[in-house]
Design a protein that fits this description.
signal, D-Maltodextrin-Binding Protein, domain 2, BUG, alpha/beta, single chain, 19% strand
């Protein structure tokens, strides 16, 4: 009788273990197990597009993941951000953010249905870059001092092209006007490439641009760089002076690029992405590729990038308001 009871007990325990095993949740699939989309909120050819495609390509090579850059341009980069915010927080939809779409756009587009500091999660900083003030190689302006002298002699007659009204690059131009005490005439374009083409053709006197967007034409000798807007010279163009060195002490305007994900993306996914992107930024190949575009690679923790976003978001509210920039 006892032996029979023990046999039933053993059978019950075995059945219970089998049932429990059958009911246990399956382990989560390893991330990633399908292609990752990196939304590029600007048109092809600009600085954001160049760096985004570099990250997507090199990350695919280094990890054997499939990372695809996807251009979703419009409204100063805010359309691409809007798409990222709406995406499922699974780590398969990322976006390349920077000052224009995360820091400046929200102060220009008053009815945006998202807040970058609340609706996005910082993943990894990629690079920063100065703005370049340049002109066609056929231009009469050889130095920034030439531009300032001419602008003071004939206020409002010198034109400069930018990627768009209210972009960080436009505002860099506006801050330069204020620092120099001059008046230029701003011509906004829909993206960096159209502004660049018109500057090369001489249709605008100056180009104010991200360095990655202009680097190819500078290296080819078709575009003459006059100054960079960062506090120190660019390692890519060490012979080009800063605006500060050109007589405007303390002038320092640069932009940054970072990967973001929708809020709610699992911390483990963010950690995986941050580690792989930072590992990539530490390689000699990636450093050289980024510097060749006129940008400077810089790794950060996800928390450090989040702090950078919050600080700049607060700081640039006043700059945008003082500029008088408006979206028409």
């Amino acid at each position: 009788m006892i032996r029979t009871l023990l046999s039933f007990t053993a059978l019950a325990l075995a059945l219970g273990a089998t049932t429990a095993h059958a009911q246990a949740p399956a382990p989560a699939a390893a991330y990633p197990n399908k292609p990752i989309r990196l939304i590029v909120p600007f048109p092809p050819g600009g600085g954001t597009d160049i760096l985004s495609r570099l990250v997507a390509t090199k990350l695919t090579e280094s990890t054997k993941w499939t990372v695809v850059a996807d251009n979703k341009a419009g409204a100063g980069g805010t359309i691409g951000i809007s798409e990222a915010v709406k995406a499922a927080p699974t780590g398969y939809d990322l976006v390349m953010g920077q000052k224009d779409n995360l820091v400046i756009g929200p102060w220009l587009y008053k009815n945006l249905p998202w807040d970058p500091t609340k609706d996005l999660t910082a993943v990894a900083h990629v690079a920063y870059t100065p703005v370049i003030i340049a002109t066609s190689v056929n231009s009469k302006y050889k130095t920034l001092a030439d531009v300032v002298a001419a602008a003071k002699a004939s206020p409002g007659t010198i034109t400069y092209g930018s990627p768009g009204n209210g972009t960080s690059i436009h505002l860099a131009g506006d801050l330069f006007e204020k620092a120099a005490g001059i008046k230029l005439s701003h011509i906004p374009y829909k993206g960096s490439n159209p502004a660049l083409m018109d500057a090369l053709a001489g249709n605008v006197d100056l180009l104010v641009s991200s360095l990655p967007s202009a680097m190819g034409q500078i290296k080819s000798g078709k575009l003459r760089p006059l100054a960079v807007t960062s506090a120190k010279r660019s390692s890519s163009l060490p012979e080009v002076p800063t605006v500060a060195e050109s007589g405007f002490k303390g002038f320092d305007v640069s932009t940054w690029y970072g990967v973001f994900a929708p809020t709610g993306t699992p911390a483990s996914v963010v950690s995986t992405l941050n580690a792989e992107i930072n590992k990539l930024l530490a390689t000699a190949d990636m450093k050289a590729a980024i510097q060749a575009q006129g940008a400077e690679p810089e790794a950060m923790s996800a928390a450090q990038l989040g702090t950078l976003l919050k600080n700049d978001y607060a700081k640039w509210k006043g700059i945008v308001e003082a500029s008088g920039a408006k979206i028409e």
